[in-house]
Amino acid sequence: MEYILIQKMYSGEIEMAYKDLERKKKNEQAWREKNRGRYRAHQKKYYLKIHPNARSRESYYDFETHREFAMNSGIECIREWRECFKLGFMPDGIYRNPDKTFSNYYSTRAE
Q1: What are the C-alpha distances in Å from 108 to residues 28, 47, 102, 103, 105?
Q2: Model's pTM, two decimal places?
Q3: Residues near 35 by Cβ (< 8 Å), separated by ≥ 6?
Q4: Residue ranges of the domains in the chain?
Q5: What angle do CA 82, 98, 63 make, to 5 degrees?
Q6: Nearest 10 degrees: Cα torsion 77, 79, 84, 88
Q7: d(Cα 82, Cα 59) in Å, to the nearest integer?
Q8: Could you report the per-residue pLDDT of 82-92, keeping only the tens digit for each?
């Protein structure tokens, strides 16, 4: 990363603009607030460029449906689940990572 040298007007001090990480973070946050709509559009465009097959889903199935699907299809572990998802065998409305999505459900169920 290149540092830009800025000389203050009346004092002979030289300041490096982004040597201070707090200042850099503050400037980036101010830029994001100012350009919130454009920044989100940029993020979405970039994501779709990397993941051309991505599509938005209106609704997802609940935990019980995911569980029945896994048992009926013979999926035994999360590795098999992700492999099937990656190959495109999962129908719309099924999460890629149900273990993370339903982690709250697991913790309340165990008690």
Answers
A1: 39, 34, 10, 9, 5
A2: 0.45
A3: none
A4: 21-54, 63-110
A5: 135
A6: 140
A7: 20
A8: 898 888 888 88
